[in-house]
């Protein structure tokens, strides 16, 4: 009986990190600069973006990771 591990969010110093075991899948960073275009920026699976809502930024990371998992590798 094998259990498939699920990724989880861990709160960090200036944001949140999305982990699967010891592998970092993505992150959301809070910007303290008032002149920044977005309050949060996110990075995952070679993609990046920004937004003003933490939940939306987390969902964007999760979506990018899910798409990267399903997308075929171009160079294999």
Structure, explained:
The chain is an alpha+beta fold. The chain is built from 1 helix and 5 strands; from the N terminus they run E-E-E-E-E-H. Strands 1-2-3-4-5 form a 5-stranded antiparallel sheet, covered by helices on one side. Strand 4 (about 40-45) and strand 5 (about 45-50) form a beta hairpin. The longest helix has 17 residues, at about 55-70. The chain is globular, with a radius of gyration of 14 Å.
What would a concise description of this structure say?
The chain has one helix spanning 54-70; strands at residues 8-11, 15-20, 23-30, 40-44, 47-51. It has 76 residues and is an alpha+beta fold.
Topology, element by element:
Blueprint: E1 8-11, E2 15-20, E3 23-30, E4 40-44, E5 47-51, H1 54-70
Antiparallel strand pairs: 1-2, 2-3, 3-4, 4-5
Give the helix level as a range of percent. 10-25%
Principal-axis shape:
globular
**Count the strands?**
5
Secondary-structure element order, as H and E?
EEEEEH
Largest β-sheet summary? 5 strands, antiparallel
Overall pLDDT confidence: 89
Structural class: alpha+beta
Question: How many helical stretches?
Answer: 1
Q: Regions with pLDDT < 50 over 5+ consecutive residues?
A: none
Question: What is the CA-based Rg, rounded?
Answer: 14 Å
User: Strands of the largest sheet, in order across it?
Assistant: 1-2-3-4-5
Distance between the termini: 31 Å
**Proportion of beta-strand residues:** 35-45%
